[in-house]
């Protein structure tokens, strides 16, 4: 994760807009914030059955198994309400709808986060 974030910082310092994509829980925000400062933190969430169906379609990805998906889903469901403004519910939404929601809410400042949040 440190190398991933260090690379992102290099791109950001070179003037690029950088997106870190992955399963990034808020427990990693202090590490990310240490390297990047403030950031936009977006949590894409879906119902467990949707996540399990998506994972079963990724047979080449070892972490995409039901046990891991259930554990991670539980961890994200247990997040404090402080992260509610960072959530976009994706179940039943097309990629275009999720992107529209992101753009609208990003313009309102919903996703701004500090490393200590």
Layout of SSEs?
Blueprint: H1 2-13, H2 29-36, E1 39-40, E2 43-45, H3 48-56, H4 66-77, E3 87-89, H5 95-108, E4 112-113
Parallel strand pairs: 2-3
Antiparallel strand pairs: 1-4
Helix pairs in contact: 1-2, 3-4
Verbal overview:
With 117 residues, the protein is mainly alpha-helical. 47% of the residues lie in helices and 9% in strands. The protein has helices at residues 2-13, 29-36, 48-56, 66-77, 95-108, and strands spanning 39-40, 43-45, 87-89, 112-113. Strands 1-4 form a two-stranded antiparallel sheet. A two-stranded parallel sheet has the order 2-3. Helix 1 (2-13) packs parallel to helix 2 (29-36) and helix 3 (48-56) runs antiparallel to helix 4. 5% of the residues are buried. The mean pLDDT is 88.
């Amino acid at each position: 994760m440190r190398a991933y974030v260090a690379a992102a910082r290099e791109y950001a310092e070179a003037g690029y807009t950088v997106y870190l994509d992955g399963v990034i829980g808020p427990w990693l925000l202090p590490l990310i914030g240490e390297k990047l400062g403030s950031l936009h933190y977006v949590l894409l969430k879906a119902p467990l059955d949707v996540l399990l169906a998506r994972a079963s379609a990724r047979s080449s990805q070892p972490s995409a198994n039901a046990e891991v998906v259930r554990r991670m889903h539980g961890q994200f469901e247990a997040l404090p309400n402080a992260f509610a403004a960072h959530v976009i519910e994706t179940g039943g939404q097309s990629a275009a709808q999720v992107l529209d929601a992101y753009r609208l809410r990003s313009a309102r400042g919903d996703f701004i986060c500090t490393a200590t949040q």
